[in-house]
Amino acid sequence: MSLQSRAEMREAFERALRLADHDRLPLRVPHEVKPTQRLKSMHYHYRPEIFLQLHGSTDFQFPRERFELGPDEVCVIPAGVPHGERVQGEAGRPFRNLVVGFYNNTISLHFAYEASPQRPDIAEIEFFDAPNLDVFLMLTNSLAHMHAMQSPARNAVLKGLLLALLGLFRNIIETGGDHLNGDIGKVFQAKCLVREQYSNPELGVQQIAAALGCSRDYLSHLFHIETKERLTHYIQRIRIDGATLALETTALTVSEIAYASGYADPAYFGRVFKQHKGVTPQEFRAQLDAQRHRPESAPKTVYADRVDFSPGEPVARKAEATLPGVGARR
User: Domain range spanning residue 215?
Assistant: First the structure.
């Protein structure tokens, strides 16, 4: 991505932050539907997507509704929600928006343009290493869930979540790791294809090599020389990393996660997962549940002369406990 485009991206997030801070950045979120439906003229992703409209408009179609996203509006599409997009420019300005995608430990930011009448495509894209991807996903998912709720503090929570998320995107443009972008040529392109298409069960070295216009043997050798890792192992590792994150952060079933990770056979997925993690997906999720319910092992409060494991109690209750006879009645 050129320096000019990166500067435009930075300015887009800065403008969005200013608008959000003054309650002038409308948020659009489609209604929750049965996820991962295969519908004609629509597609879905296993991670949420964020659209920041810059110029022109995007007409979104969903199973139960449709709406138009205009300039200085933001849309969050939850994971698994089928959608279609038709775009249009405005007087004197072509269509343009900024799209955020989430992959395994990676965030993609791309500008979209009108590639053919009403059809968007990627103009420029950049990937950013995001070892704290779970934070971005938590904020994005919380935005979508809170938008559907009717609670007293709904608007304040939405504003806070949106400001935090936009601020993190603004920061990652300046401070995001360049490890992925440091790869050059076909190795970079191969990694991008894997991270974008790892849910495709047909994805393999042969398909990637064909897309990059080279032979399978050449790409495998080049990838191994530059990364010290075999491309087949990289594909498998990215898939398992994605499955691990899904087990940790979603309520999808193991079979749904298997399909989302590019495995047509959930039983085979379970065997591969165990090879990488030492436990089956079901055991991994059970361990997570056990950890969440495990009693605290560290003290709640540390004093100069003692430690206290209790969560504390109201002062009034403490006073009652010191009164004669209190605690003796049943």
Answer: 183-291
